[in-house]
Design brief:
There is one protein chain. The protein contains 14 helices and twelve strands. It is of the alpha/beta class. It folds into two domains: 143 residues, Response regulator (Rossmann fold, 3-Layer(aba) Sandwich), CATH 3.40.50; 146 residues, Response regulator (Rossmann fold). Helix 6 packs across helix 7.
Amino acid sequence: MRRRDFIKLCASTVALPLAAHAQQGEGVRRIGVLMGRSDPEEQLRLAAFEDGLQKLGWTEGHNIRIDTRFPTGIDQYQPLAKQLVAEHPEVIFAQSTPVTAALQRETRTIPIVFVAVSNPIGSGFVANLARPGGNITGLLYYEASIAGKWLAILKEIAPRLTRAALVANPKTTPYDYFLQGAKAAAPSLAIELLPSPVENAADIESVIESVARVPNGGLVLPPDATTIVHRDLIIALTARYRLPAVYALRDFVVAGGLMAYSSDIIEQNRRAASYIDQILRGANPAELPVQEPTKFETFVNLRTAKALGLDVPPLMLVRADEVIE
């Protein structure tokens, strides 16, 4: 090759976009994805994640291949995790605590980036937030103190509230983590906290009926795979017994729940793409700090408030990111 032609070739190689260079030099990169469930909300999360990747130069079918699994039940987490790991992706994107736990049981070497995980240290995923130390890192969903905020806004919309049950399954969410935050905040709000762990529909029905027997009760529901499965039952029971409830997820409010205060999970999915990008380019997940949530949203269902005989404070309406009428 003549010297002049060689210089031209080098210049054109340097000018290539980094993603295209990765494709030519390393081939199509493989990303595994294990979602938390199969529904339209999860499709929105996945779309945000893919959008984040595309903005960083990674496009499905061009320089990446994304293998996605959508479980239809909690019992599918482990078999789908095993199946996904067997495909040998270069990095795995995980939604929720039980999903991340299932993947961790299958691999300690493939990098895993999580979202919708609230207690990664207590769950054994990372050594600490600043320096995870293993093959797992990601974006923190909630700090424990968020439980105090849930109690506060529930009291704001239902001023007569004196008792509140914290309802979730310790097997599918870090229950004690949220319980500690709720216990710290309850006395200053003059609320008696009722720890109410559940495992199935029968437990949920029993807890809600028990809270309804005494006036001025309410419910706090942290993010939890079990209560998500029984979302419609919970909303129906709170309507029947006229109980105010605050949720950690917008889709409960869209389905008829009273209100939610939530970390912006769609934005978290989009932001998670940056860690996938860094790992594909050689970053070590052990050295990528767990990112804290940066944006929270308030959702209120006015129709439900009216049915419960509650007046939504004007300031809450002003603060709300979405009001369902």
